[in-house]
Specification:
The chain is an alpha+beta fold and about 675 residues long. It has four domains: about 100 residues, Phosphorylase Kinase, domain 1 (2-Layer Sandwich); about 160 residues, Transferase(Phosphotransferase), domain 1; about 250 residues, no CATH class; about 35 residues, no CATH class. Helices cover about 50% and strands about 10% of the residues. It is built from 22 helices and 15 strands. It has a six-stranded antiparallel β-sheet, covered by helices on one side. A three-stranded antiparallel β-sheet has the order 7-9-10. The chain has a two-stranded antiparallel ribbon with strand order 8-11. β5 and β6 form a beta hairpin. The protein is elongated.
């Protein structure tokens, strides 16, 4: 039965086929309704003539298994797979959720390039799906805008769905249903640009098909275009191959990859070119930059293929990182790094550095990150998809966005942050009052010389040390609270678990922060600038001590490494934390002093001590407020620098899942489920 005659049929007694959505070389995709639930679905059916060939069935089964193993909101949901009789023929079918919307490629045809905020959102969702696939041992191998679907989420945005895991590589594949699996049929390979000759027009062929020698029901496993290498040549596993082509002279007894009869069609966003030949004729289809996305889709699209995929080497997850880099490059610049015919593009992927990405209003660090994903050496690319998206988000956000997020969190949880500051700053309040008392006694000449100067200096130094340690504790506890807000936003924000966490780390926390405070104080006393330099380098020590397993010198070294990722923002925070209260308190005290002088008719005797007392009293609440706010900024900056280095929040999820914060049964069940899920992804 022809596929077009399926419309109106009830497949397998469950799916009423209503209309055809698209047709490809191996079959067609239909809009259907599940009779039991009346749910609309997309139904993918293999053409009956291909059911005679085990490699086709195995390829289809592979797609079902790859997609079925993934449970992720950004992966198209596969709900059913099976075989059914249609008249005298048997067909295989795959049932997927029906999606509204369009592909990213269709958007780019009209929009060219996209705004940075939209690019980051699209790539974050795409990378989340790809990272989940990698965690499950699945490599997509054909990531491109045509396989990224955007569906309206009814909240003003779009939900990304990654499509077509039909050529995905599973690291742990169960035993095949047939001993003659698709991969066993495939011979060693040769990169296509080493084997194809240019056409008369000067363009390299993108597809070579056999003439009459190809069987009517030609066999196509995983490669859309392949070329038979010399018999003596050996190579790696052909299942990893890129886009290759068999010559018509290939031995038909060796069921390799041959072409399909008839026309060029579309199969759910992944296209393959098929044979258009007459007797004894070899047809060579050439591809321009615009048409390359329609060539070789089964094992990768040349415009988006990694160098190792073009060379036909064994692939790992880093090949998908390269494809993500090409997608990011195109989204930002409006074009792919390389263009031209298939021969030229694949050779450039292997041999030539990509043109620098230069786009206005895109941070240089974002551009550098995209270029790192396009490295020829897989080791120089971001380590995984989650790290790539995290770094993109971190580098795309400047100091302004960081401050806005901090103000939002601070205002939403103001009582918690103020209560924390008042509790931890209690010793600072005591020492500030002691300093005011000493200044008052000195002003009244109740302390004999030279003890008055010694006492004032000693109390000032102690006040500074207590202030520094208290500020560090607030920064550490605030980092814990902010991390909880980011990792588990629905959990109540409580101080007790945070204090319990810092209690476990109290001794190394105090020794490290006291040492740093002494170093900063010595730097300020020497020339002031060294003190500021040390304060910037060690600004994130409290966050490191609180959230990571570093102590002492290791924590200080880690803080310096994080500081180097965002020097300007750290410096701005240091200035805000120390100089804003100083400027505000000085201005307020001078205003009060002017009022006092006016009442005393210009008499300024003893006003210096009065100014000092007023400045200390006014600075205390301002310092508490400023420290509370800058601690939130520091916590967000800590995570910004970590994400900028390719780290993720995954550790924070595990860390908070391990915290015993509630004995309620539902929370225990959720914690157990989260821990089990995270362990399977390590």
């Amino acid at each position: 039965m022809a596929l077009k005659n399926l419309i109106g049929e009830v497949l397998d007694g469950k799916y009423h086929i209503e209309k055809q959505l698209g047709e490809g070389g191996m079959g067609a995709v239909y809009f259907a309704t599940h009779l039991g639930t009346e749910r609309p679905v997309a139904l993918k059916v293999i053409a009956p003539q291909f059911m005679k060939h085990d490699e086709f069935v195995e390829r289809f089964r592979r797609e079902a298994r790859a997609a079925g193993r993934l449970r992720h909101p950004n992966v198209v949901d596969v709900t059913d797979f099976g075989f059914a009789r249609v008249g005298a023929d048997q067909v295989a079918y795959l049932v997927m959720e029906y999606l509204d919307g369009c592909t990213l490629d269709e958007i780019l045809e009209e929009e060219t390039s996209l705004p940075l905020s939209w690019v980051i959102d699209i790539l974050e969702q795409t990378c989340s799906a790809v990272d989940e696939a990698h965690q499950q041992g699945i490599i997509h191998r054909d990531l491109k805008p045509d396989n990224i679907w955007l569906e309206p989420n009814r909240r003003g945005g779009y939900t990304i769905k990654v499509l077509d895991f039909g050529i995905a590589k599973l690291d742990e594949i169960a035993e095949p249903t047939s001993t003659n699996s698709a991969e066993e049929y495939l011979p060693p390979r040769t990169p296509i640009f080493d084997s194809l000759a240019p056409t008369e027009s000067g363009e390299s062929p993108t597809l070579i098909t056999g003439g009459e020698s190809a069987p009517p029901a030609a066999e196509l496993s995983e490669a859309a275009t392949q070329i038979q290498p010399p018999a003596a040549q050996t190579g790696a596993d052909l299942s990893e191959a890129g886009t290759l082509a068999f010559t018509p002279e290939a031995d038909e007894s060796e069921a390799g990859t041959r072409m399909l009869p008839a026309q060029s069609m579309e199969e759910m966003g992944t296209r393959i070119l098929e044979q258009r030949t007459t007797d004894k004729q070899i047809v060579m289809q050439t591809g321009s930059a615009s048409s390359l996305t329609r060539v070789g889709s089964i094992l990768g699209t040349p415009l988006y293929m990694s160098p190792e995929q073009c060379r036909g080497e064994r692939l790992d997850a880093r090949t998908d990182i390269y494809s993500l880099g090409v997608i990011a490059y195109r989204l930002l610049s409006g074009q792919t790094p390389f263009s031209g015919d298939l021969h030229a593009v694949m050779k450039m992927h292997c041999d030539e550095p990509p043109p620098p990405l230069k786009v206005k209003h895109v941070p240089k660090k974002v551009q550098a990150l995209v270029m790192s994903a396009l490295s020829k050496n897989p080791d120089e690319r971001p380590p995984n998809a989650a790290a790539f998206s995290s770094a993109l988000r971190a580098h795309s956000e400047g100091a302004g966005s960081l401050l806005r997020r901090a103000l939002t969190l601070y205002s939403e949880h103001l009582p918690v942050f103020l209560r924390l500051a008042l509790l931890v700053f209690a010793p600072v309040i005591v020492f500030t009052l002691l300093q005011v008392t000493v200044t008052t006694l000195n002003m009244l000449h109740l302390i004999p010389q030279p003890w008055d100067g010694v006492l004032r200096v000693s109390v000032t130094i102690l006040t500074f040390l207590v202030n520094f340690v208290s500020a560090s504790i607030i920064a550490g506890v605030t980092t814990w609270l902010v991390t909880q807000m980011l990792a588990v936003p629905l959990r109540p924000v409580l101080l007790r678990p945070a204090f319990s966490a810092i209690k476990k780390r109290l001794r190394p926390f105090l020794t490290t922060t006291i040492l740093i405070s002494l170093l900063v104080l010595a730097g300020v006393a020497l020339c002031f600038i060294p003190g500021v330099y040390l304060a910037c380098n060690f600004a994130l020590v409290a966050s490191v001590l609180m959230m990571e397993d570093f102590r002492g010198r290791a924590a200080m070294k880690r803080s310096r490494a994080l500081y180097k990722r965002s020097r300007r923002t750290v410096f701005a925070i240091i200035l805000t934390q120390f100089f804003v209260p100083l400027v505000l308190s000085s201005g307020s005290s001078l205003l009060i002093l002017a009022v006092i002088a006016a009442f005393r008719k210009g008499e300024l005797k003893g006003t210096a001590d009065i100014t000092s007392i007023l400045q200390q009293l006014v600075a205390l609440p301002l310092t508490i407020m400023a420290t509370s706010l800058t601690s939130v900024i520091t916590a967000l900056l800590y995570w910004k620098t970590r994400l900028a280095g390719g780290e993720t929040l995954r550790q924070a999820f595990v860390q908070f899942a391990d915290e015993e914060v509630s004995a309620r049964k539902w929370q225990q069940r959720m914690r157990t489920r989260l821990q089990t899920h995270m362990k399977t992804h390590r």
